[in-house]
């Protein structure tokens, strides 16, 4: 929880800073103010549509409440954000879908976003919780990817099932599922290649991996986690959109939230893509991965 606070503080400070700056220049609830607010939200990567919506609804809300004071207007902004987030997250689950028997999770995402790191961190958490964990190095496309996962496997003290570089990713997954069943493992985390530049190939590859899993575990994979880098802001949004068109993404890992003012994109992801953020990365260390709690996050950001 301390790490979460630390990470959030950074997001909070920067996001608050821009908001505070806006409120410091506040003179009256006029059109100029709403335009500034809209621009501030867009800059914080809250997302274009969501920023417009927040500003539009706030215009009405402020009139309705007859809010004139700086503090009242600020309060209305926070409340509107929480309201919109909650409305959009209705019926969605922020928890990872963990099974009684073997749980299989696929990890997708482009290079450099923190996919391997997140898998390593999560593997370590489950191992510490007494679960039997296996990793599958199914990103056979990139030469360094297998070695990198092996390094994280050692760090997290869990076994990595691997094949040859350039080999068939589905064959690696097949081996990993067989091994997981034989060992009665609880968790299998699968690292996959994320080549968005060739969407058809990527789609075929992921479908093939899913079929291999489903042959043995009919309701699997239980999660398809997309990893995106929060520091890339709107780029991460574009990636998420593209992956969503390619495969059924069930949840998001938002990494590097410790180093960015773009915390507002949590709202954009929810409102424009309807993908639940399930995990957040708050640093490079093995312990720097936390479950995501939307209410804590939004409330914390504006305190
Ligand atoms: P991959 O190519 O997607 O597997 O990315 P990696 O897992 O290799 O991570 C790329 C870089 O991002 C590495 O230097 C990681 O240490 C760093 N990284 C990953 N997650 C986080 C995070 O939550 N915060 C910070 N600050 N760095 C991170």
From TrEMBL:
It is found in: Cell membrane; Cytoplasm. GTP binds at residues 109-116, 191-195, 255-258. Coiled coil: none annotated. Its EC number is 3.6.5.4. Residues 276-289 form the SRP54-type proteins GTP-binding domain. It catalyses: GTP + H2O = GDP + phosphate + H(+). It is an enzyme of class 3 (hydrolase). One of its GO terms (cellular component) is cytoplasm. GO terms for biological process: SRP-dependent cotranslational protein targeting to membrane. Its main location: membrane. It is a peripheral membrane protein. The keyword Cytoplasm applies. Signal peptide: none annotated. One of its GO terms (molecular function) is signal recognition particle binding. It comes from the Bacteria. Keywords: Cell membrane, Cytoplasm, GTP-binding, Hydrolase, Membrane, Nucleotide-binding, Receptor. Belongs to the GTP-binding SRP family. FtsY subfamily. Part of the signal recognition particle protein translocation system, which is composed of SRP and FtsY. Involved in targeting and insertion of nascent membrane proteins into the cytoplasmic membrane. Acts as a receptor for the complex formed by the signal recognition particle (SRP) and the ribosome-nascent chain (RNC). This is Signal recognition particle receptor FtsY. The chain holds residues 133 to 435 of 441 of the full protein.
């Amino acid at each position: 929880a301390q790490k979460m606070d630390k990470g959030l503080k950074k997001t909070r400070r920067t996001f608050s800073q821009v908001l505070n700056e806006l409120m410091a220049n506040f003179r009256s609830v006029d059109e100029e103010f709403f335009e500034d607010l809209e621009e501030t939200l867009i800059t914080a990567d809250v997302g274009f549509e969501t920023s417009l919506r927040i500003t539009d609804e706030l215009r009405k809300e402020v009139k309705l409440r007859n809010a004139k004071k700086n503090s009242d207007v600020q309060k209305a902004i926070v409340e509107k954000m929480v309201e919109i987030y909650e409305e959009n997250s209705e019926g969605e689950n922020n928890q990872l879908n963990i099974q009684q028997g073997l749980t299989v999770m696929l990890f997708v995402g482009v290079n450099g976003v923190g996919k391997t790191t997140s898998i390593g961190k999560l593997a370590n958490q489950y191992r510490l919780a007494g679960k039997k964990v296996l990793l599958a190095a199914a990103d056979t496309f990139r030469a360094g990817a297998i070695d990198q996962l092996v390094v994280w496997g050692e760090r997290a003290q869990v076994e990595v099932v691997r094949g040859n570089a350039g080999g068939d990713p589905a064959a690696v997954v097949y081996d990993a599922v067989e091994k997981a069943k034989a060992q009665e493992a609880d968790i299998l985390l699968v690292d996959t290649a994320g080549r968005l530049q060739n969407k058809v190939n990527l789609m075929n590859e992921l479908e093939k991996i899913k079929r291999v899993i489903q042959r043995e575990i009919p309701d699997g994979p239980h999660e398809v986690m997309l990893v995106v880098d929060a520091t890339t802001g709107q780029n991460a949004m574009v990636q998420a959109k593209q992956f969503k068109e390619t495969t059924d993404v069930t949840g998001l890992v938002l990494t590097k939230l410790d180093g960015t003012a773009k915390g507002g994109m949590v709202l954009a992801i929810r409102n424009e893509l309807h993908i639940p953020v399930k995990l957040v990365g708050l640093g490079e260390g093995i312990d720097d991965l936390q479950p995501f709690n939307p209410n804590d996050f939004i409330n914390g950001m504006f305190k």
